[in-house]
Amino acid sequence: MTLEEKAIELLLRSPRLEAGTILDLLDVGDREFREMARRNRTIAKLLEARRAGQLKPPKSEPIQCPVCSEWFVPYGSSRFCSDTCRTAGRIREVGRGRHRRRPCGDGEVAESGHAKGEDIRAAARQKE
Ligand SMILES: [Zn+2]
User: Fold this and answer.
1) 78 and 43 assigned to the same domain
2) Are residues 47 and 78 in the same domain?
3) Which residue pairs from 85-93 have beta carbons closer than 8 angstroms and sit at least 24 positions apart in sequence?
4) Ligand 1 center from residue 99 Cα (angstroms)
5) What's the gap in Å between 69 CA and the centre of ligand 1?
6) Ligand 1 centre from 110 Cα, in Å?
7) Ligand 1 centre and the CA of 15: distance in Å?
8) Does position 12 have pLDDT exceeding 60, yes or no?
9) How far is CA 89 from CA 12, 54, 70, 112, in A?
10) What's the pTM?
11) What are the pLDDT digits (tens) for 13-28?
12) Ligand 1 centroid to 1 CA: how many Å?
């Protein structure tokens, strides 16, 4: 991974920065950026989250733990006050059938180019 790519990963986490501003800052071209998004899942996911408006500002404001109702200052993107509550929360979500997996892959980012290589390799494997 290049240094620019790593920097883009970090900067994309901030909802205050436009993607265009980040590219200008790092002097990265549009085409180069699209290639990064194609091979780098972290960048692709961050772009998806940005489009969906799911990016949270990295602020440390107290939130209420959904399990024990305790107020706490989250570390990173944790929604729970402790590992114990996180485990309990996961079990609850599974129990409610809310644990749905979203299909991965982004139609906008993916282009036919590399999918073809996969097909050829799969066909070759079948012949063996
Ligand atoms: Zn808790």
Assistant:
1) no
2) no
3) 92/67
4) 19
5) 6
6) 40
7) 27
8) yes
9) 28, 20, 14, 40
10) 0.44
11) 888 888 999 999 899 9
12) 37
